[in-house]
Design brief:
The structure holds two protein chains of two kinds. By secondary structure, chain A is mainly alpha-helical. Chain A has four helices and three strands. The longest helix of chain A is centred in the last third of the chain and has 23 residues. By secondary structure, chain B is α+β, with helices and mostly antiparallel strands. In chain B, the strands form two sheets. In chain B, strands 1, 2, 3, 4, 5, 6, 7, 8, 9, 10 and 11 form an eleven-stranded mixed sheet that branches. A six-stranded mixed β-barrel of chain B has the order 14-15-20-17-19-18. In chain B, α4 runs antiparallel to α12, α14 packs antiparallel against α15 and α23 runs parallel beside α26. The longest helix of chain B is centred in the N-terminal third of the chain and has 40 residues. Chain B starts with a helix and ends with a helix. The mean pLDDT of chain B is about 80. Classes of the chains: A mainly alpha, B alpha+beta. The interface between A and B is medium-sized, with 18 and 23 residues.
C-alpha cells in the first residue's frame, strides 16, 4: 500500500528545483521553454543547462511531482517532436509548500528586523 | 552536436540516455541557435556551460541509479532475509578461510625469510658421506670464508645454545651465539642499542649480550632501559648492548639472549675442522649468483683437501638460498592447505551461485514484467549485480572478521610446522586476496542469476540446466575428496591415540631440574642431590612414585653406535642412551623382563647398563641371554665396556607413530649429567602437584633451575599435535564443503522443482503418486551426485596417497573410509533434496494446470 503523500517530505527544494516547478505552474512546457523562462524570470541569474534540467525532470517524474503530457497546450506554438511536462497536483502541493516555507522565513527575518517591510502589498 | 552526443554517452547512464538523450540534444540545439544570434562569444559560453554541466550532472545520475538499485536490493533482502543470510554466510566462510590461509601461505611460502633483499641471502653447509642432511661448517672454516670468500658482501655465523639466566628467577633460556656481522648481514635493525663490536666478537672480548624485547620488558620495563644494564649469563655478569625486536625470530622464536660467537669459537675444541657446529649465512654480492658462489666455495674446499687430505674427505659444499632452507620442511604442507582453500573457494562461489540461481528462477515473472515495462537487459543485469555485490560485501565484512579468528587458530595449531622466522598476520596482500575472492564471487554469482533469469524469459534453457548439473558434479567431487581425506586422517589419528607407548603416561608430571655448576663439582655431588631431591618428592602426600632421568620420554635424545663384545659387525646398529635414577622403570611402568632395575650402589663399581628388549633380541636369542654380556655405546675407542644387568620393555621414545628404537639406560651415578628430568606419578591431577614438587626441590637448593614443567599426557599429545592439527583443518574444510554442497543440492533441486511446476502437475494428474514424485525428484538429485561422488572418491584416493606420510595404521585406500563416505554423501544428497521433493509431491494438479 502506498504511503500518504506529504509535500513536506520533499522540502526544502534547491533554487533550480523550485524554479523548474514554478516554470510549470502556469502551464505545460517543454525543456527549452523551461530554461528560457527561468533565465528570463531571474534576469539571467539562474541559468539551467540541459544536463541539470533533465536530471531534475527525471527525478520529479520518478517522484510523481510532474508528468509528461499527451496534449499540446498551444497548437500554434506546438512542436510535435518535443516532450511537454505538466505539474501534477502533488508537484503543485510541493511548490506551494516550498513557497510557504520561504514566506515563513521572510516573516521571521522581518520580525528580527533583518529586512524592512515591503512598501507594496 | 556529434561531440555532445559522445559526451552524453560517456557521462550519463544508459537508462537515463534512453529517456532523455534526444530531448537534451534538441534543447541544446535550440539554445545553440539562440546563442548563434548573439555571436561567437555567446556560442562559446554556451558550450562551456553545457560541458561543465554534463560533467557535473552525469555522475549524479549514476549515483541516483545506484541509490535506486540499493533500495531495490534492500527490498529484496527484506522479502527473503533467510535466503540472503545463508548466501552471505556461504561467502563469509569462503572469504574467511581464503584470507586466513592466504596470510599463512603468503608468510610461509612466499616470504619465509622476512629480511630485506632476502633473495640475496644464502645458507652455506657441508654435505658429508655419512649423512643425507647437510651439516654445519666448523668454526675455522667459517673464519676462513669470512676472510677470503669474494662472492659475498658479508659472511656471518650463529650457533644455538642454552644458557642459565641469573637474577630474580633464575632459569634456563635459549640463546644464540652470533658473529658481530650477523644483523648487518641480514639487514636487521635493533630495537635499541648497538651491534657487537669486532673486538667483542673475539677471544677475550668483554662479556656483552643482546636480549629480546620481551626479556627487556620483563626485567627492565622497556627496551631502552635495558641498555647498559648487567645480566647474569651462566654466572657471568654481562652488559646488555642491544635489544632485538620480538618479530626478529632469528634463529628461532624462543631465543632470548644473543652473545658474541668469537669468544666461544676460541675455545680449544672449536678449533677442530671436524667439529661441525657453526651455521653460516651470507649475503651475495650484486654481481654474484648462487652458482658462482658455489663454484668459488668448491674450489676453496678442494684447496683445503689438498692441504689436509685426512680432514673430512668426501665433504662437499652446499650453497642454498636461505628461503629454501627455512621453508623446505613445510612447503608441501602449506601448498596442500592452499590447494584445499582454493577448492573451498571454488565450492563457495559455486554454492552461492547455485543459491542465487534458485532465487533467480523465482524471479522470472518479475524479470518478465520489468522487461515488458521497458527495462533494458543491461539495466536488469546491473540491478542483479548490485544485489549480489551487497550480499558479497556483507559476506566480505563478516569474512574478514572471521579470518582474524581463523588465522589465530591456525597459527596456534601450526606453530611447530611453520618456518621459524615467520609471524603470519592479516596483511594487505591477504586483504586483497579476500577482496579478490569477494569480487570473483560477486561476478560469478551476480551474472549467473541475471543470465539465468533472462534466459528463463526467453524459454527453457537446457544448456543452463546442463551447466548447473556440471557445477553440482564438480562440487560434490571436490567436497567428497576432502571428506575422504578427512575421514582417513581421522581414522589414522584415532589409531594413534590407541597406540601403547610402552609406559604409562597418566597422572605423571615432569620438569627439567638443572644444577648450577659451582658447588656441585665434587664426585657424586650431583647424583647425591638428585637422590635427596627424589626422597623429598616421594615423601610428599599425593606423590605415588618419583624418579629422574634424561633425556625425557618423547625426545629423540642421544644416539650412539652399538658395539657388542664378541660381535665384529653389529650391522650399523644405533641405540639411544639415557641416564636414570633408580626407580625409573617402576615409576614409568616399564616392565623389567629379565635381570633387575638399578639400585643406589650401581655405578660405583663395575660399569653397568640396562637395555631394552629390542636390543637384546637383536643380538641374542632371549632377554636372559643378554644378561651379563658387555656392550659399548658411542665411539668404540673412547667408550668403556658396560655390563648388561637388566632387560626392560620397549618404549616408543620419539613419537607414538614411530617404532621403538634400540635403547640403553645407564645409572646416573655412573656418569652424571648435571641436569635431569624429575618425573612423579601422583594419585590425583598431576598438573596441580607441580608447584608443590618444585617447592620441595627448591628447599633443597635455592639456586636450582627448574623449567619445562609439563604433564606426560600433554607431552604425548604434543608428539601428534601436528597430525591432529591437519586432521582438524581438513575436517573443518570437509564439514564446510559438505554443508555448502548440501545447500547447493537443495538450491538446485528447488530450482528444478520451481521451474517444472507444470510438469509435476501433469505427472500428478496422470496418476503419479506423491511417493513416486518424491522418489523421482530425489533420484534426479542423486544422479549427478553419484557422478561427482565417483570423481571425488578418485580425488580423495589421490589426496590420501599424497598425504600418506601423515597416516598411521590406515592405508590411503582404506575401504571402510570410502564406504562410509559414499553412504554419507548419498544420505546428505537425499536429505538435501527431501524438502523440494516434498514440495513437488504436494503440487495440486488443478492449480498447476491452470498456471501458465
Amino acid at each position: 500500500m502506498a504511503a500518504r503523500f506529504n509535500p513536506d517530505d520533499h522540502l526544502p527544494l534547491t533554487a533550480a528545483m523550485f524554479e523548474v516547478l514554478l516554470a510549470l505552474a502556469d502551464g505545460d512546457k517543454h525543456g527549452y521553454a523551461i530554461i528560457k523562462e527561468v533565465r528570463a524570470r531571474s534576469d539571467g541569474r539562474v541559468r539551467l543547462s540541459a544536463g541539470t534540467l533533465y536530471g531534475l525532470l527525471k527525478r520529479f517524474i520518478d517522484a510523481g511531482l510532474i508528468a509528461e503530457c499527451d496534449e499540446r497546450p498551444d497548437p500554434a506554438l506546438d512542436d510535435e517532436r518535443r516532450r511537454y511536462y505538466r505539474l501534477t497536483p502533488q508537484g503543485r502541493a510541493v511548490a506551494v509548500a516550498e513557497t510557504r516555507r520561504m514566506e515563513a522565513a521572510v516573516l521571521q527575518a522581518r520580525s528580527k528586523q533583518l529586512i524592512k517591510k515591503s512598501r507594496t502589498t | 552536436m556529434r561531440f555532445l552526443r559522445r559526451l552524453l554517452r560517456i557521462a550519463f547512464p544508459e537508462e537515463f540516455r534512453a529517456g532523455y538523450e534526444r530531448e537534451m540534444l534538441r534543447t541544446f540545439s535550440a539554445q545553440h541557435a539562440e546563442a548563434h544570434r548573439g555571436g561567437r562569444v555567446a556560442v562559446l559560453k554556451l558550450w562551456l556551460e553545457t560541458i561543465a554541466d554534463v560533467v557535473h550532472s552525469g555522475p549524479r545520475q549514476h549515483l541516483e541509479q545506484l541509490r535506486h538499485d540499493l533500495q531495490y536490493a534492500l527490498r529484496a533482502f527484506r522479502r527473503r532475509p533467510g535466503f540472503y543470510a545463508v548466501t552471505a554466510a556461504v561467502l563469509a566462510i569462503g572469504i574467511a578461510s581464503t584470507t586466513a590461509i592466504f596470510s599463512i601461505v603468503d608468510a610461509a611460502l612466499w616470504r619465509p625469510v622476512p629480511f630485506e633483499a632476502a633473495d640475496r641471502l644464502v645458507a652455506i653447509r657441508e654435505l658429508t658421506p655419512q649423512d643425507a642432511q647437510p651439516w654445519e661448517l666448523s668454526y675455522p672454516s667459517f673464519v676462513d670464508l669470512r676472510a677470503n670468500a669474494t662472492s659475498f658482501e658479508s659472511v656471518a655465523a650463529f650457533m644455538r645454545n642454552g644458557v642459565r639466566l641469573g637474577g630474580r628467577e633464575p632459569r634456563s633460556t635459549e640463546a644464540a651465539l652470533i658473529s658481530a656481522n650477523l644483523w648487518p648481514t641480514l639487514r636487521v635493525r635493533l630495537m635499541a642499542g648497538r651491534n657487537f663490536s669486532v673486538e667483542e666478537d673475539d677471544a677475550g672480548g668483554a662479556p656483552v649480550v643482546m636480549i629480546s624485547n620481551r626479556l627487556a620488558v620483563d626485567r627492565f620495563g622497556a627496551a631502552a632501559n635495558a641498555i647498559g644494564q648487567a645480566v647474569s649469563i651462566d654466572s657471568t655478569a654481562s652488559t646488555i648492548v642491544g635489544v632485538v625486536a620480538d618479530s626478529t625470530r632469528f634463529p628461532d622464536a624462543d631465543v632470548d639472549v644473543w652473545m658474541p660467537l668469537g669468544p666461544f669459537g676460541s675455545e680449544p675444541f672449536m678449533r677442530y675442522r671436524s667439529v661441525h657446529t657453526t651455521l653460516v649465512v651470507a649475503r651475495l654480492r650484486d654481481a654474484a649468483t648462487i652458482d658462482t658462489a658455489r663454484a668459488e666455495l668448491e674450489a676453496w674446499m678442494d684447496a683445503q683437501h689438498a692441504r689436509d687430505p685426512k680432514g673430512d674427505p668426501g665433504h662437499r659444499i652446499v650453497v642454498r638460498s636461505l628461503a629454501s632452507q627455512v621453508s623446505a620442511p613445510s612447503r608441501s604442507v602449506v601448498a596442500a592447505l592452499l590447494g584445499a582453500v582454493a577448492l573451498l573457494l571454488a565450492v563457495t562461489c559455486s554454492s552461492a551461485g547455485m543459491l542465487l540461481l534458485t532465487r533467480g528462477s523465482g524471479r522470472a515473472t518479475e524479470v518478465a514484467i520489468r522487461l515488458s515495462l521497458g527495462a533494458s537487459r543491461s539495466r536488469l543485469t546491473r540491478q542483479f549485480l548490485t544485489e549480489t555485490a551487497c550480499v558479497a560485501l556483507i559476506g566480505a565484512v563478516l569474512g574478514i572478521a572471521g579470518a582474524q579468528a581463523l588465522l589465530a587458530y591456525l597459527v596456534g595449531g601450526l606453530q611447530d610446522t611453520l618456518p621459524p622466522l615467520v609471524v603470519p598476520a592479516i596483511n594487505g596482500a591477504a586483504l586483497a586476496a579476500a577482496l579478490g575472492a569477494a569480487a570473483v564471487a560477486t561476478m560469478v554469482c551476480g551474472v549467473a542469476p541475471a543470465a539465468a533469469a533472462l534466459s528463463f524469459v526467453r524459454g527453457p534453457a537446457p544448456a543452463a540446466e546442463r551447466q548447473r548439473h556440471r557445477l553440482l558434479i564438480a562440487q560434490v567431487a571436490v567436497s567428497c575428496a576432502l571428506v575422504v581425506l578427512a575421514v582417513i586422517l581421522g581414522r589414522s589419528l584415532d589409531r594413534l591415540f590407541r597406540v601403547d607407548p610402552g609406559f604409562r603416561t597418566d597422572r605423571m608430571v615432569m620438569m627439567q631440574v638443572a644444577l648450577p655448576l659451582p658447588g656441585y663439582d665434587g664426585p657424586g655431588a650431583v647424583p647425591r642431590f638428585f637422590e635427596s631431591a627424589l626422597a623429598r618428592v616421594r615423601a610428599l602426600p599425593g606423590v605415588v612414585a618419583a624418579t629422574a632421568g634424561g633425556p625425557p620420554p618423547f625426545t629423540s635424545g642421544s644416539v650412539g653406535s652399538v658395539h657388542v663384545e664378541g660381535f665384529r659387525d653389529t650391522g650399523g646398529a644405533v641405540a639411544t642412551y639415557r641416564r636414570i635414577q633408580p626407580g625409573y622403570f617402576a615409576t614409568l611402568g616399564i616392565p623389567v623382563i629379565a635381570g633387575r632395575d638399578f639400585n643406589t650402589n650401581d655405578g660405583a663399581g663395575e660399569m653397568v647398563v640396562v637395555v631394552n628388549q629390542g636390543l637384546a633380541r637383536r643380538f641374542w636369542t632371549s632377554a636372559e641371554d643378554a644378561l651379563g654380556k658387555r656392550i659399548k655405546i658411542g665411539v668404540a675407542e673412547r667408550e668403556p665396556w658396560v655390563r648388561i644387568i637388566g632387560v626392560v620393555g620397549d618404549v616408543r621414545n620419539r613419537t607414538l607413530a614411530e617404532a621403538p628404537e634400540l635403547a640403553t639406560y645407564e645409572p646416573h651415578r655412573q656418569r652424571p649429567w648435571n641436569g635431569l628430568f624429575v618425573m612423579a606419578r601422583t594419585d590425583g591431577d598431576a598438573a596441580t602437584m607441580a608447584p608443590t614438587i618444585q617447592r620441595a626441590i627448591r628447599e633443597l637448593e635455592a639456586d636450582v633451575v627448574i623449567s619445562r614443567t609439563q604433564t606426560m599426557d600433554a607431552r604425548a599429545a604434543g608428539t601428534f599435535a601436528a597430525r591432529r592439527f591437519y586432521t582438524v583443518v581438513v575436517g573443518a574444510f570437509a564439514v564446510a564443503t559438505a554443508l555448502l554442497v548440501a545447500l547447493a543440492v537443495y538450491g538446485a533441486t528447488s530450482y528444478s522443482v520451481n521451474s517444472r511446476f507444470r510438469e509435476f502437475g501433469v505427472r500428478a494428474a496422470v496418476g503419479a503418486s506423491a511417493t513416486a514424485l518424491k522418489r523421482f525428484v530425489v533420484f534426479e538429485a542423486l544422479r549427478p551426485a553419484a557422478v561427482g561422488l565417483a570423481a571425488g572418491l578418485a580425488g580423495g584416493a589421490l589426496a590420501s596417497f599424497a598425504a600418506r606420510g601423515l597416516l598411521y595404521g590406515v592405508g590411503p585406500f582404506d575401504t571402510v573410509s570410502y564406504v562410509a563416505v559414499v553412504a554419507l554423501f548419498l544420505a546428505l544428497v537425499a536429505l538435501a533434496s527431501w524438502q523440494p521433493a516434498t514440495r513437488a509431491a504436494r503440487i495440486d494438479p488443478t492449480v498447476a494446470l491452470r498456471t501458465e
